[in-house]
């Protein structure tokens, strides 16, 4: 079954904690990015992990030289189950993060995912990212990353990228606030893949009901 990842982009620690308390039973994973970490501190990652016991992925879109990427990965993967990075900076930068993830896996016996962005979901991504996205997907396959990010806003691109990466899981943002059409996306994704939903849940009048609704739609689609 396609899984549901909540993009928890709220900027208030108490709001974030209350929200995950209410809705964690309807979601499979939680994505934490700069809005929450910069407003609440990195410790929020551990707090949410401890509170929910869900998979927690940090969307830091890491895009630096290898030695700086290593430092960011060390701090992040200490608590998070995974980290999102950019591939356009070159494979050595991604490999630096993979090296740290491996070290944690050996130490903790827990999987630490390195997830690479291919093509982003917003309109501006067609300008610079789309022309290199297929190549990035090929690099993701060569590096055997644990996941790639590809857009729900462009089902035809999602299909193409999925074809390139084969069995590498996809996490796909764009459903809800960005206008991605759920059924079209669910026809493409498979059981190891995730949709990411943020505002359509946390900004809705009733986040709990909204998360429940998405979880039911995913179940329904998978029979
Ligand atoms: P909404 O509110 O639009 O949130 O449902 C979407 C979430 O996904 C993030 N996002 C991306 N993350 N590659 C990524 O790694 C992407 O292409 C991409 N597009 C959107 C966004 O920051 C938000 O957290």
Automatic annotation (TrEMBL):
Q: What is one GO cellular-component annotation here?
A: cytosol
Q: Which UniProt keywords apply?
A: Decarboxylase, Lyase, Pyrimidine biosynthesis
Please name the pathway: Pyrimidine metabolism; UMP biosynthesis via de novo pathway; UMP from orotate: step 2/2
GO biological processes: 'de novo' pyrimidine nucleobase biosynthetic process; 'de novo' UMP biosynthetic process
Q: Where does substrate bind?
A: 9, 31, 59-68, 121, 173-183, 198-199
List the PROSITE patterns hit by this protein, alphabetically: OMPDECASE
User: What EC number is given for this enzyme?
Assistant: 4.1.1.23
- Catalytic positions are 59 (for ompdecase activity), 61 (for ompdecase activity), 61 (proton donor), 64 (for ompdecase activity)
Q: Identify the stretch annotated as signal peptide in this record.
A: none
Catalyses: orotidine 5'-phosphate + H(+) = UMP + CO2
Give every Orotidine 5'-phosphate decarboxylase domain span.
3-214
Q: Do you know which SMART domains this protein is assigned to?
A: OMPdecase
- Using the UniProt record, name the top-level EC class of this enzyme in a single word: lyase
| Gene3D superfamilies (alphabetical) | Aldolase class I (3.20.20.70)
What Pfam families does the record point to?
Answer: OMPdecase (PF00215)
Entry GO MF terms: orotidine-5'-phosphate decarboxylase activity
Function, as annotated: Catalyzes the decarboxylation of orotidine 5'-monophosphate (OMP) to uridine 5'-monophosphate (UMP).
Assembly, per entry: Homodimer.
What protein family is recorded? Belongs to the OMP decarboxylase family. Type 1 subfamily.
Q: Which HAMAP family match?
A: OMPdecase_type1_A
Record-given protein name: Orotidine 5'-phosphate decarboxylase
